[in-house]
Amino acid sequence: MTRSTLLFVHGTGVRSESYALTLKQVDSKVAEFHLPCTVENSEWGDVYGIDFEGLSLPDPPKRSEEEEAQAYRWEYLQVDPLFDLRLWCTPAAEPPKKMLGAKSVASEAWEGSVSKYISSYEKRVALIELLQHNQIDGFFLPAWNKVVLTGLPKEAFAAAGDDGAAVSRVFAEAVVAQMMHDAAAAQHPVAISPRIGAKIVTVLLFDWNQATKGLKDLFFRFFGSATKTIVRPLRAGASRAIAPAIGDILNYQAVGHHIRELIRKKIDSIPGDIFVLGHSLGGIACFEMMVEARSGHDGDRLSSVRGLITAGSQAPLLYEFDALQTLRKGKSLPVGFPKWLNIYDENDLLSYRADRVFNVQADMQVDSMLPPLEAHSAYWKLDQTWNAIADMMK
């Protein structure tokens, strides 16, 4: 089999030090999969990438530990409004003893006031005024019904023993979290802030005669400690990781032709057949470079390129935005555009499908099972990626 060259063009926010580590990964995988190629690189980040000091990043808000914990608790509950209710349904190791035929405090609260609350909903002046004042009254009843229809509230109250106030708060929070979820997913999205959510919970607990000072259980304490040791550092790190990437993409609109020319010169210096492998913004630059070449602007200058491989690329998205520099929306790929393998991961929020946009051969989907930031740089660790590249080169 003829030996060719795999030219690796990195993505956004990458500079020499991190690029060197990525190249080691690529070299290692090329050897592991016995690909018939040598690896070359085209490093543009230190030449045309932005310099970012982070001076514009805002300081975190000044909150007490309890306020911070509540904020992240609401964020979590919006993802899974029924989370805490499920926990209350888990039977205790030693259920509380009770007299035969007697009902627990929590069961009486459910049957006596909480479950019947909705039947006289129109008389709840304070609640209705609060909902209408914030223009979210249309979300309350549907959210209540969704939560109740799961059967979890009745089960949770039955399992709560004498802790009726705590389980009442959990149920109220589930309803409000469902409201937040539904409002955010509405055709015209509405944001319900945690402060408004907390007010709704307070009114509900007052109406049920289940008001307590606050939720002081294990999960509240967890959210407090997690905020301090995990969440906030992750958010600060995410901001610093995302900002250079966004900056490089915006800067590309101004200096994209220089980046493409740098890659072209590297290709001109390599003899024999070449497969171009572009990651993220590098994939955009390589894609646009091949459009220019096959549109006649560069003649036969890139005739040695046998295939284009992009991973975690935003080229399809920019095409739909009509924001590419070399191919206007509605225009087809030029005749002779090389075979193209586009690799994407649904976990990577910066990766997009090309096959449905450009009507090309099917893309390759991989699954890193990692959070978005880690997923964007995980392609080179996945056997799925290298099996697809090997198939293409063969």
Can you walk through the features of this model?
With 394 residues, the chain is of the alpha/beta class. It folds into two domains: 208 residues, Rossmann fold, CATH 3.40.50; 137 residues, no CATH class. Helices cover 52% and strands 9% of the residues. The protein has 16 helices and six strands. Strands 2-1-3-4-5-6 form a six-stranded parallel beta sheet, with helices on both faces. Helix 1 links the parallel strand 1 and strand 2. The chain is elongated, with a radius of gyration of 28 Å. The N and C termini lie close together (8 Å). About 4% of the residues have low confidence.
Helix/strand layout:
Elements: E1 4-9, H1 16-32, E2 37-42, H2 45-48, H3 65-79, H4 83-89, H5 105-114, H6 125-133, H7 140-149, H8 152-159, H9 164-184, H10 194-207, H11 218-268, E3 274-279, H12 281-294, E4 305-311, H13 315-320, E5 339-345, H14 355-358, E6 364-366, H15 372-376, H16 383-393
Parallel strand pairs: 1-2, 1-3, 3-4, 4-5, 5-6
